[in-house]
Amino acid sequence: MPDVDVCVVGAGPVGLTLAIALRGLGLGVRIVDRAPAAKREARALVLWPRALEALDSLGVAGILRRNAVELARVTIHGRGRRLGELTTGWHRSAHNRPVNIEQHDIERLLCAELAGRGTEVEWDTEVTDVKVHEDRAEFTLTRPDGTAESGTAAWIVGCEGTASVVRDRLGIPFEGRRRTGLQVVQGNAHPEWPLGEQQGHGHIFLARAAPSSPSRCPTGRTASSASATTPTPR
Ligand SMILES: Cc1cc2nc3c(=O)[nH]c(=O)nc-3n(C[C@H](O)[C@H](O)[C@H](O)COP(=O)(O)OP(=O)(O)OC[C@H]3O[C@@H](n4cnc5c(N)ncnc54)[C@H](O)[C@@H]3O)c2cc1C
């Protein structure tokens, strides 16, 4: 008899959302992540309507919306002038506009929602091996001090990003290739510019080598991502 119904490997947005969905179905879930705690660095910033609809069906859209800012319009700039404007809200849905909310805030809120459903993320817990049998998956969990534990689950789900141990042990290839020569840099800042600071109003700056897209976060900071074609390490 396996120890648990499902072991979810990786507590990023995919693993956390899946764990919440499985708990909603009444299944026993163990979710592990090798990181010491939830992420803090700037990553994705926009939740689009379809994602909000899916999260709504799991009962977690409300808490995310309360910690987000609706994105109503985006002004596009290029060559030193305003080129045009995108407006949102055309989608026929209860969530007809995208919202700005930082990925680490999404993850923090999903962790809390999951804990409220009886499952805590086990941090500092890396899956280092997986064996799949007819009726169960057997996995090894390794902690930073080198101690290891083995466990079993009726199902194991790899939500641990591109370098997935689960996918590797199942022999599923990672299709696609690394894109070289392109770097995406993302950060948060308080800009000083003549464009003002309007809630729900983002900007995209088109530039030959480094387009950038600042948008206001719920925290009042402005998150900006810029892609640049640069010689990156290969
Ligand atoms: C700097 C940066 C900026 C980004 N900006 C954007 C953006 O603007 N818009 C956008 O749509 N996307 C953006 N992304 C991409 C987005 O962050 C990812 O698509 C998203 O995080 C993928 O979610 P995930 O749950 O699949 O995986 P991840 O978020 O990568 O989570 C995987 C988790 O698995 C854990 N893990 C890995 N291996 C193991 C293991 N063996 N055992 C246990 N745990 C393990 C990791 O610690 C991690 O927490 C950005 C990414 C980065 C790095």
From TrEMBL:
InterPro entries linked to this entry: FAD-bd, FAD/NAD-bd_sf, RIFMO-like
Any Pfam family hit: FAD_binding_3
GO molecular function: FAD binding; oxidoreductase activity, acting on paired donors, with incorporation or reduction of molecular oxygen, NAD(P)H as one donor, and incorporation of one atom of oxygen
Ranges in coiled-coil conformation: none
Compositional bias of kind Low complexity: 218-234
Cofactor: FAD
UniProt domain FAD-binding: residue ranges: 3-191
Keywords: FAD, Flavoprotein
Region span, Disordered: 210-234
TM segment ranges: none
Protein name: FAD-binding domain-containing protein
UniProt organism field: Streptomyces laurentii
Taxonomic lineage: Bacteria, Bacillati, Actinomycetota, Actinomycetes, Kitasatosporales
